[in-house]
Amino acid sequence: MSDALVPPLALHGWYMLTQFVDLPPAAGDEDAEARRNRLEDLAGLLAGWDDLGQGGWSGLYRLVGGGSDYMLLHLRPDLDGLGEAERTLRRHDSARDLEVTGDYLSVVELGLYGHTLGLARRAEKEGVELGSEGWQERVEAFLAEQMEKDYTLRRLYPRQPESMPYVCFYPMNKRRKVDQNWYTQSLAERARLMQEHGKTGRGYAGKVSQIISGSVGLDDWEWAVTLFSHDPIQFKELVTEMRYDEVTSVYGEFGDFWVGRRVPAEELAGEFAG
Question: Which domains does the chain have, with CATH numbers?
Answer without folding.
Answer: 14-108 (3.30.70.1030)
